[in-house]
Amino acid sequence: MFNYVVSELNRFNLAYLHIVEPRIQGNVTVEDDGNGLGARHFRSIYQGTIITAGGYTRESGEAVLEQGDADLVAYGRLFIANPDLPKRFALNAPLNEYDRSTFYGGDHRGYTDYPFLDELKVLTTV
Ligand SMILES: Cc1cc2nc3c(=O)[nH]c(=O)nc-3n(C[C@H](O)[C@H](O)[C@H](O)COP(=O)(O)O)c2cc1C
């Protein structure tokens, strides 16, 4: 069914198709053999821009782009915990770890209190 639906989406000149890899269930990473209904599978079916998400690290995100399986990589949990995630990736800087217990919380904790690189006084020379 998904092959058919994705194939039909080609007719609509969409901005992108955003795929969540099967290694993700909700906000939890699960076992996956890499051969499921993800970006690699749909690349040959969908002709437009593909965004893939789901458990990517800096390295695996770069790898999926280099392999050509997707055009863009979306980051969820890492971005929640690292508001300056692109800068950290560019500098290969250490990441804040996310706190799952605050993902669905009702105040600033887990949303606006993760430190930026500069606050950590990390050496940022490239
Ligand atoms: C707080 C939070 C809430 C989420 N809620 C949903 C949701 O309602 N529906 C859904 O399909 N995915 C949901 N997700 C999954 C994300 O869309 C995304 O697929 C997932 O976080 C994988 O990307 P990541 O490994 O970069 O975090 C949620 C993720 C997080 C962290």
Automatic annotation (TrEMBL):
NADH:flavin oxidoreductase/NADH oxidase N-terminal domain span: 10-95
InterPro entries membership: Aldolase_TIM (IPR013785), OxRdtase_FMN_N (IPR001155), Oye-like (IPR045247)
Superkingdom, natural source: Bacteria
One MF term in the entry's GO annotations: FMN binding
PANTHER family: NADH OXIDOREDUCTASE-RELATED, NADPH DEHYDROGENASE 2-RELATED
Protein name: Flavin oxidoreductase / NADH oxidase family protein
Biological source species: Lyngbya aestuarii BL J
Lineage of the organism: Bacteria, Bacillati, Cyanobacteriota, Cyanophyceae, Oscillatoriophycideae
